[in-house]
Write a structure and sequence with these properties.
Oligomer: single chain
Number of strands: 30
Distance between the termini: 55 Å
Radius of gyration: 32 Å
Mean pLDDT: 79
Strand content: 35-45%
Helix content: 10-25%
Number of helices: 2
Low-confidence stretches: 1-17, 297-343
């Protein structure tokens, strides 16, 4: 009868004279993590009576010796002892992942272009700020004083320009941060640099048997140079009078490996656990607060002219939609039976969800070459019934966007990744999903809603200038937003707008009673932001008024600075 034994760290005094037995093995299964993989090899060996060593030769140099685990079974009793990992010279040809290097090169070129764009926009902002420091008494024709009645228009133009360039800078820097993160992920996925003579690893396992035994061993170890990335596809059917809206949601995984080993005909399991990440929360260092000591007057930067004019919160063009990939339309599939052809059933992975992690076992056996070429597999697919609505931010863009929201009801979380979006059979672009836990809401944007007309106009602005020292200055502003529906059915709309907020007691901001009461204040923790949610009947329109007033000491100037957005949930 065969018995199963797990690895036990037993040291044998007779190891010095133990014979080496080469273990011929094959890779049977692999568990791939977002930042590495655990490989399991199976092999057979004939053990002689007494002590000996079973040796696996030529394993990748990037294996983690602490992760090695040995299990075995045999026709008789035997013991597993100490595991010794040796570094030996190897003859490894360099493996270059051209696709990966091209992607990193393209990202770096895009980052370089972004840096140039940032420099250009910063120069534009500096020019605007220098212009704002020229007094109105010199802005008229031939350097003469500008008429007082034209001053508000100049201030408005300066403020609008500053708001626009600041918005452009935020967009460019945000994309730059995303590119840096993408490059870092791709660089971590690179294998150890291969070169002629690069070292390999031999793993020697001490064994001892009381009699000759036919043994079967399973050796597993963690290795770098492998990863998987989640990808999603959402196909929205907006429905009709007879059918409700529906989303066909597909979860995919893109696998790559450059471990130095060919994974041929292996069982692959994908895990959501990060095997190389931290295992406990970081410690916080104490922070001491003290009075700020300004630098000496000789170190202060010189400045001429008045403080920059206030920058009103005016419209800035939102960034264009992400570029569609050329092969996206190839992913569209016909549903049901057409003529004498049937759409084949897509095999999906088997999900095993635990309290702290989830794993997907890919059906059958697959092969993943070590050259870094990608292998795409379908993990799950299904249909969900979304709630459709429209969302508009008219201060930034006078346009409404279709949004579909649904609850994620699968047992496994959705890891952060790209989602390819289709609406009624047309590919409209790609978005991104952040980590979504089971039971959380997913909201996806599906492009502009051209049947909703949105406009936002300034109705009134009134500023008071101080006439004596110590008098308070005020700035009153009123805006009107109108949303009109051209749909043939009712539609739910959410409009967001904002007013400045102050943390200085000397600067007060008050929303006046003429403001249309918002449905929600500070959505998702955004200070100063309000949301109005309402239903629009076919052909109906909704008017929203926003009126606020700012008060501050007359001898001071205000600055307006956009704050970072709270971390998005999806």
């Amino acid at each position: 009868m065969m018995s199963r034994l797990t690895a036990a760290l037993i040291l044998f005094p007779s190891l010095a004279s133990a014979a080496d037995i080469d273990l011929s093995s094959r890779i049977d299964r692999v568990t791939v993590y977002p930042d590495g993989a655990v490989v399991t090899r199976l092999g057979k060996a004939e053990l002689s009576e007494g002590a000996s060593q079973i040796v696996l030769r030529g394993l990748p140099a990037s294996i983690d010796p602490a992760s090695i685990r040995v299990e075995g079974k045999g026709t008789g009793a035997f013991s597993l002892g100490a595991v010794d990992v040796r570094t030996v010279p190897g003859d490894v040809k360099p493996v270059i992942d051209k696709a990966l290097e091209d992607k990193i090169r393209a990202l770096r070129e895009e980052k370089s272009k972004l840096d140039g764009d940032v420099a250009a926009v910063e120069a534009k902002r500096a020019t605007i700020e220098r212009f704002s420091q020229v007094g109105p008494d010199k802005l008229g024709p031939d350097g003469k004083a500008l008429p007082v009645t034209d001053w508000p228009a100049v201030f408005e133009a300066i403020g609008t320009s500053l708001t626009k360039v600041n918005g452009e800078l935020r967009t460019l820097r945000s994309r730059g941060s995303e590119i840096d993160a993408e490059i870092a992920v791709l660089e971590r996925a690179r294998p150890q640099p291969g070169r002629p003579g690069a070292p390999k690893r031999d793993v020697a396992i001490a064994v001892e048997a009381g009699a000759p035994v036919s043994a079967e061993l399973a050796v597993s170890y963690r290795v770098g140079g492998a990863n998987w990335l989640p990808q999603y596809e959402a196909r929205l059917s907006t429905g009709s009078a007879a059918a409700k809206p529906e989303i066909a949601f597909i979860r995919r995984a893109e696998l790559r490996q450059r471990t130095g080993e060919d994974w041929s005909d292996v069982v692959v399991t994908l895990s959501t656990t990060r095997s190389a990440g931290g295992t406990r929360a970081p410690d916080l260092a104490p922070v001491q607060v003290a009075f700020y000591e300004p630098p000496s007057v000789y170190e202060l930067p010189r400045r001429s002219g008045p403080v920059a004019a206030p920058a009103p919160m005016a419209a800035a063009k939102a960034k264009a939609e992400a570029e569609a990939q050329a092969d996206a339309e190839a992913r569209q599939r016909k549903a049901g039976r057409t003529a004498d052809f049937y759409v084949p059933e897509v095999q999906t992975a088997q999900l095993e969800a635990g309290a702290y992690q989830a794993s997907f076992t890919v059906p059958g056996r697959i092969t993943i070459a070590q050259d870094g070429s990608s292998k795409a597999v379908v993990l799950s697919q299904g249909k969900v019934s979304p709630t459709l609505s429209a969302r508009a931010t008219p201060e930034l863009e006078e346009k409404a966007y279709l949004e579909a929201a649904f609850t994620h009801e699968e047992e496994a979380p959705l890891l952060g990744g790209q989602v390819f979006l289709h609406r009624d059979g047309a590919y409209i672009g790609q978005g991104r999903i952040s980590l979504v836990a089971p039971g959380d809401k997913v909201a996806l944007g599906f492009g502009a809603d051209d049947k909703l007309k949105v406009s936002r106009v300034p109705v009134r602005r009134r500023e008071s200038e101080p006439t004596w020292i110590g008098q308070t200055r005020t700035d009153l502003r009123e805006f009107k937003t109108v949303v009109k529906s051209l749909h043939a059915q009712p539609v739910s709309v959410t409009v967001t707008d904002r007013v400045p907020f102050s943390e200085n007691a000397a600067v007060t901001v008050e929303t006046l009673p003429q403001t249309t009461p918002p449905t929600e204040k500070q959505p998702n923790g955004k200070r100063g932001v309000s949301a109005w949610t309402f239903d629009l009947a076919p052909g109906a329109e909704k008017e929203i008024k926003l009126v606020y007033r700012i008060k501050w000491p007359g001898d001071r100037e205000l600055s307006y600075e956009a704050q970072p957005l709270p971390q998005a949930t999806n």
